[in-house]
Amino acid sequence: MGVVQSSTQLPVTTDIIVVLAVVLAALVMFVSEWLPVDVTAILLMVTLIVLEPWTTISPEEGISGFANEATVTVLAMLILSAGISRTGIVQQLSHRMASFAQGDIRKQLLATVGVTSSASGFLNNTPVVALLVPVITDVANRGNTSPSKLLIPLSYASQLGGTLTLIGTSTNILASDVSVRLSARYPELHAFSMFEFTKLGALVVLAGGAYLVFVGHYLLPERVPPRQDYIEEYDVETYLADLIVTRGSTLVGRSIADATAQLGPEVDIVQLVKQTGRSIAPRQAERLEVGDTLVVRTNRSAVTQGTVATNLELVGRDPTVDAMQSAERETLVELVVALNSRLVGQELDLEAFRESYGAAVLGLRSGGEQISGRIVGRKLTVGDTLLVEADAETIDQLSRNPDVIVAREPPNPSYRTEKAPFAIAIMATVVGLAALEIYPILVTALAGVVAMVVSGVLEPNELYDAVEWDIIFLLAGVIPLGIALEETGAATLLALGLVELSRGLPLVLVLWLFYITTGLITEVISNNASVVLLIPVAAATASQLGSNPFSFVLAVMFAASTAFLGPIGYQTNLFVYGPGGYRFGDYFRVGAPLQLLLSVVTVGGITFFWGV
């Protein structure tokens, strides 16, 4: 085990200062989220090109990220993951493994961790978690377990599984690409093979999985009760009122649209109850008759004003309406705002939501907190959870809508199960050819996309919805930043500074510090940005120390693939935030010990397998 001794000096040039200033500005933009991450990435490209005399990034290099092998490979893998998802393979596997769990929390966790980590080794973990949120929630409810005990482990297990193979996460693919670019300067670096670090990934999965199964659930509170009553959970009754259309009402013979206009913007018509039945999120053109009951979501002052204006009769909760609601509470479902949803950044408009999605919004949970009072006009963000009421057919349609994640399984899911053999064969061929190094993963993945369409696993128009475009733009934006760091000498300067700070420390401790630093940075900026910024610095530091650059690159890559300290560090953490009813501190409580455990396991594994 070596010890850091000394370093040489590198002059601080104007080029280095400019590039480091751009890096600092990019970090501030990513952390503050003043602009969406994809827009920030485009701005980063433009800035590097405009400052070419100092950054050395020409227009061709500035946009090279779009044609980069890592970017195109990630795009193809996202589409392949969508193809697997459409067949329902992951859900079926989860159902079979969960059937033995019943009411045993450890068996439930074992099934959750086992299925999720295995699937995430070969599929992008974002769609895996989106698919399994409703499955795991139902497993918890059937076993009389709080979903809060299983949903954070679901997200963490997906991140653990991403460390198993080259294609487990976009971070691995990008790290391999950066490693290739740096190989001219550091001969120890090279492109990663499909299973090059699987032995270390397996060690991480086993250690992290054991922690989640045997320790982690004790640290997680039961935020959401088993078989939760959504009406009670969201305190919906406080905001619901019944308005009867009387003979003297101005709304007799008028439409729902007219009623909405006259009642005002703070009143949303959730249901229309007629003698012939009940309409959830009634159509705007539907006509009102004497005796009809409008169930509205509002506050008391707004509904009082509305009844005066329209001569409707405000009554106590109608026992008939209550009985119908109680009998049909399966029409209530939580929707999580997805990563690339059109809803992100939009103000909540209940009527527009009803028209677009066919569902009536009853409640909202944002940042883990129940929103009391008015929800109209609130800006939605990734991970926000909407409580909506919709019929079974609409819930099925919503489960296939990329804008939202339905937090329980739809009554009649429509998977292309007959295409499952084709999807499995295509994915196995893609992985097999790349693993045997017959063709690069870029070629096999693109060929797999074509095969998915030709075989009918995916429809051509589904290809574009399958891609998480913000990730693609982020990759395209940060890749030239990594080039600028390396070519201007900024990475080497940072490495020399770290060497000075590490003087006298054992090399394995320096390696551990890189892991911890990467993990903390990943909590506030994108994992892909962390890899691009830190791998050049890590490789340069290792070279200065006379250490193995490959070991340092692996430490950065594994640390960037795991973000356990909060809900914003990784998109899968946001997906379970609302359905689990979590608070910010819940992630830290269970995630901090896991992060510390994996730092020791990962660094120890790297030292054992590859040396320092």
Explain what this protein looks like in three dimensions.
With 612 residues, this protein is of the alpha+beta class. 57% of the residues lie in helices and 8% in strands. The chain is built from 27 helices and ten strands. It has a five-stranded antiparallel sheet, with helices on one face. A hairpin with a 2-residue loop joins strand 2 and strand 3. Helix 5 packs antiparallel against helix 18, helix 10 packs parallel to helix 24 and helix 18 packs antiparallel against helix 19. The longest helix is centred in the last third of the chain and has 27 residues. It is elongated. About 2% of the residues have low confidence. It comes from Haloferax namakaokahaiae. It holds the Pfam family CitMHS. It is a multi-pass membrane protein.
What quaternary form is this? single chain
| Span of the ends, CA to CA | 8 Å
Strand order of the largest sheet: 3-2-4-1-5
Number of DSSP helical runs: 27
Overall morphology: elongated
Secondary structural class: alpha+beta
Main sheet summary: 5 strands, antiparallel
Name the beta content range. 5-15%
Using only CA atoms, what is the Rg? 27 Å
Overall pLDDT = 84
Helix content: 55-70%
Unreliable runs: 318-329
Total strand count, please? 10
Describe the structure in brief:
This protein has helices spanning 14-32, 37-50, 52-55, 59-62, 69-87, 89-98, 105-120, 125-142, 148-161, 170-182, 198-219, 230-233, 256-263, 300-310, 319-327, 350-357, 392-399, 420-435, 441-454, 462-466, 469-487, 490-501, 507-522, 527-545, 549-560, 571-575, 584-610; strands at 240-244, 268-274, 277-280, 293-297, 313-315, 332-337, 360-366, 369-370, 385-389, 404-406. The chain has 612 residues and is an alpha+beta fold.
